[in-house]
Amino acid sequence: MLYRNTCTCNLLFLFQVFEQVVNVMTWRGFLSPSGRRFRMTLGAAHAVHRVSRDDGGRNRNTEEERQRLIRKAMLLPSSLLLLLGLLTWSPSASWAAKVIVVPPIMFESHLYIFKTLATALHQEGHETHFLISEGRGVPPSPYYHLQRYPGIFNSTTADNFLQSKVSNIFSGRLTFLELFDILDHYSQNCDAVVGSVEVMTRLKEAKFDLLLVDPNEMCGFVIAHILGVKYAVFSTGLWYPAEAGAPAPLSYVPEFNSLLTDHMSLVQRIANTAVYLVQRFGVRYIALPKYDRIMKKHGVTPQVAMADLVQGSQLWMLCTDMALEFPRPTLPHVVYIGGILTKPPNPLPQDFEAWANDTAEHGFVVVSFGAGVKYLSRDIAHKLAGALARLPQRVVWRFSGVPPSNLGNNTKLVDWMPQNDLLGHANTRAFLSHGGLNSIYEAMYHGVPVVGVPLFGDHYDTMTRVAAKGMGIMLHWKYMTEEDLYTALTSIIKDTRYRQRALTLSSIHKDQPGHPVTRAVYWISYVLRHNGASHLRSAVYEVSPYQYFLLDVIFTVVAALALSVFALRRCARWLRGKAGDQSRGGAFTGDDGNLANGHCHSEIMANGKHKRNGSLKSEKKMN
Fold it and tell me: Are 379 and 453 spatial neighbours (Cβ–Cβ below 8 Å)?
């Protein structure tokens, strides 16, 4: 026993030499909880070593203390494994994977999110690739690689196309028609990618481990199927699609684009149901068949319906958060990661810093309609400028184009601004925005109230939630006046309830286990570690619509009830008939009469007359 303890203690004492190497080579890993436990084990072992040297510890420690230290030293095997793991640890050795992202062909704000995600994945040892069209201006970076393809857009043509759609909306054309046109161009671009043999061969040879699909660019589902790789949805919008499979009771779950909250009247529930049915019809019979035709055109095998590909995602990561979203049922493989771009403010550039610090008396208002809307209509710009000029606050406005003629002296026009850092400044009083999701999360993160003028897409749904949560006011660009805008801005600046509510939502958003981008990386790694994490997927994808809505159960129960009622009625009728026959037979039958077939044939009357078949007949007297 002494020999074993002595050998063990000598070996553990030698491991202390390695501890210094570990501190240098794997300092990050050694500071982890496992590393701390390892250091504690080394300390215990060294203590046992000292105890053994000092004549069994009789002069310094009690026998119980020595046994306690020996038990800690018995952790040698696990500690040795930990040491070996730390000595060989590197980011690329820890579940390193090749991930390919298929971002939308337009909307640069989506690409900002994926760049942030790629940086975080790189720090964990993963390798990220972006599938980008030729001519799209994406600068090189050590955090991601670019896979180019001959698409239908480059940076210039994509921006011009998007601005033309915005201009058409301002001109009064129906928004959904413009959005359908955008979706049609998405499918045209998908046709070009899938039809490029060189591109698809190159992607197959790269042997990716996971593909991230932005549901705005649904071609990602097709590409994942062709490459035969696992895929997960990374939604850069607020959209929680019914195709994810989660229960969506229309009585309190507002459908996307319905502009409703989770508290609905009867009329609103009818409207919500109508929007749900229209959108399911549009997705099922208009949007998805475009990609079915593309796969059929290029002979993609095995043949799988696009609807099945959408529902086959291993994971759904949605850029929403319970601080902003309405509570609703969800599924284990649907996770919320809203606020990817949020972060504490950095010091402002010198010119902005001097301008912001000079507004201490009244503060300032930040105005931005996002990178996707460069040119506002003249009418809207005129209303905005007039309302902003009446405020006592200073205004910094991200603006492109010809300045409005009624621009106030308090307004500073810039073509770029450090929006996050300005929103995080102590003198910020309000944020005037189009309701873009990234901008709203930045405002919420810093506790800044919002006046929103949504223009298209998910802007309306985002601002509906902002208004419902008490963090801001929503105005409709078609109907708002300069006075409406001025009143809304004055309200959220002077009414402290908006600021307090924004700060409350900020606290809720931050009170989570890790930053959203950290959680996103965790779930991506989780899917990779568990080979798709199929244990998270519900059986909802394996049932047909009639099974999901229990139509077969309802039919079976109704049929069983109908058959039971029918049988009971037949039985009751038969029993009533039998009881009636018996009662009639008892009334007409005498003691001496004969009953045959329900008729009385002969009965001797007291007067000597005979009754035959119910009639009295006279009988001649016999001589």
Answer: no
Percentage of residues of the chain with pLDDT beyond 70 = 78
Residue 473's identity, in one-letter code, is: I
Asked if residue 256 belongs to a domain, the reply is no
**How many CB atoms are closer than 10 A to CB 224?**
23
pLDDT value for 74:
52
Whether omega for the bond prior to residue 215 falls within 30 degrees of 0, making it cis, is no
Strand 615-617 versus strand 610-612 pairing type: antiparallel
String of DSSP letters for 481-515 = -HHHHHHHHHHHHH-HHHHHHHHHHHHHHHSSSS-
CA dihedral 563, 565, 571, 572 (to 10 degrees): -170
Residues 174, 69, single domain; the answer is no
H helix or E strand, kind and range, residue 42: helix 33-53
Do 392 and 491 fall into the same domain? Answer: yes
User: Does residue 306 sit in the same domain as residue 361?
Assistant: no
Q: How far apart are CA 224 and CA 80, in angstroms?
A: 42
Q: Which single residue is written with the structure tokens 């993160």?
A: 445
What digits encode the pLDDT tens for the residues 346-369?
A: 999 999 999 999 888 899 999 999
Instruction: Please report which confidence band the pLDDT of residue 117 belongs to, taking 50, 70 and 90 as the band edges.
Output: very high
Is residue 437 within 8 A of residue 493, CB to CB? The reply is: no
| Alpha carbons 108 and 114: distance in angstroms, whole number | 10
- Spatial distance between the Cα atoms of 49 and 8, rounded to a whole number of angstroms: 8
The whole-number average pLDDT for the span 128-133 is 93
Contact between residue 455 and residue 419 where contact means Cβ atoms under 8 Å apart: no
Q: What is the CATH number of the domain that holds 376?
A: 3.40.50.2000
Domain co-membership, 169 together with 229 = yes
| Domain count within the chain | 3
Mean pLDDT of the chain: 82
| pTM of the model as a whole | 0.76
Instruction: Assess if residue 273 is contained within a domain.
Output: no
Strand ranges in 150-277 using DSSP code E only, listed in sequence order: 210-213, 230-235
The answer to whether residues 313 and 461 belong to one domain is no
Residue 207 scores a pLDDT above 80: yes
Instruction: Check if the beta carbon of residue 51 is closer than 8 Å to that of residue 57.
Output: yes
Query: What residue numbers bound the domain in which 196 lies?
Result: 96-244+299-340+532-542
